[in-house]
Amino acid sequence: MNISDLAEDYLIDPKEGMRKLTASYLNEVMQVEAENQIQARRYERTGKRKAHRNGTRPRSLKTIHGEIELDKPQIREFPFKTKVFERFSRVEESVRVSVAESYLEGVSTRKVKKVFSKFGLENISASEVSRIAKKLDKSVKEFLNRPIVGSIPYLFVDASYFKVRTDGRYINKALLVVTAIHEDGYREILSATVADSEDESCWESCFESLKARGLTGVKLVISDAHKGIQAAVQKAFLGASWQMCNVHFMRAVLKNIPKKDKKEVAYMLKDALEDEAKMQKLAVVLDDKGYKKSADTIDSFRFDLWNYKSFPRSHWRRIRTTNGLERINKELKRRSRVSGAYPNDQSLLRVAVCIMMNINEDWITGNRYLSLEE
Predict the structure, then answer these.
(1) Residues whose CB is less than 8 angstroms from the CB of residue 358 and which lie 6 or more positions away in sequence, other chains included
(2) Considering only CA atoms, which of 350, 324, 349 is closest in space to residue 174?
């Protein structure tokens, strides 16, 4: 089925269209995996071929869009290995358990009921939910407690907020996330922590736990302007520099600029980020125009905008912002829209870490993120 047919199906029936689109994509992923394992495309004559295809076997997979039927390739000489069922179902199961927990704990909102039914959970028991949750929690615990190996010069830290049910009411809780770039240029997700806030003590505890797992060699920590992060970095990583994410800095400055001048100031600000002298002049210009808060923001971070320039030039683009965390945050927010809130802290952590485990596998097995050229 081509993309046009899939698009047409989606327009006719969005739910069925998404099921077909998901099935088509995952089938294609398995075909690529089969080619890599066989070392040859379909019917290709090559001396590199290691094995031969042996048809496909139907395999069902429960997803957020309902149960889908996939065609799992078979290889004659050895078992076909795929990450589709392990990786895809791990995240899907964590989301399903979160919804089921909400329902079983009496969170009887219309949205939860609808999603509960959509997942086909009507016949699931509390004991079954508990069994699946324990299995997932074991993997989560192993991921969060694994040893950190090798020197890590760059740390990226960020927090996202999610609604979590606590003592019968919903409150916003912070998910503290730490990622890193190793000396060999590869990225890794180090930790995720659910906290009541983003204050200094929470971040300091997070950093100390990373050090206990073996974190060493930190030279630069990149984050937004949260004071709790800055204070914790100073205490936990003596000798390391803190880098204000340039994107967050621009947002902070533009926040107090009227709409009529925003575009012009954004252009000037982007240009000034390349040179300290230009940034100082811009602060004066903004102050003269009456934009004192924006000028004060520039003064507040003037010592922390260019720390990345002390490192190899080939690294600059990657270490001046926290943009590398965007994929994680987007996926977390997307998954959270399913039920709108989490029934407890562990449910949030379970979904978040299952997503991160998949992304982390891509990072550590994919292309090098930083060039090693000085």
Answers:
(1) 87, 90, 91
(2) 349
Residues in the chain: 374
The CA–CA distances, whole Å, from 278 to 246, 275, 288 equal 15, 5, 15
Q: What is the pTM of this model?
A: 0.72
CA end-to-end span of the chain, whole Å? 48
Helix axes 89-104, 126-145, angle to 10 degrees: 130
Q: At residue 347, what are phi and psi to the nearest 5 degrees?
A: -65, -45
CB 37 within 8 A of CB 80: yes
Q: Residue 17 is encoded by which pair of tokens?
A: 């269209």
Identify residue 235 by its one-letter amino acid code: K
Q: What is the pLDDT of residues 235-250, one digit of tens each?
A: 999 999 999 999 999 9
Map residue 223 onto helix, strand or coil: strand
Q: Assign 206 a pLDDT band (cuts: 50, 70, 90).
A: very high
What are the tens digits of pLDDT across the range 26-61?
888 888 888 888 888 877 777 788 888 888 888 777
Angle at 106 between CA 102 and CA 112, to 5 degrees: 45
CA–CA separation, 336 and 269 (whole Å): 34
* One-letter amino acid for residue 110 of the chain: R
Residue whose tokens read 């069925």: 16
Supply the DSSP string of 64-109, one letter for each residue. TTEEEEEEEEEESSS----SIIIIIHHHHHHHHHHHHHHHHTT---
Domains of the chain: which residue ranges? 3-82, 83-244+338-374, 246-321
Tell me which residue of 72, 104, 66 sits closest to 85, measured CA to CA.
72
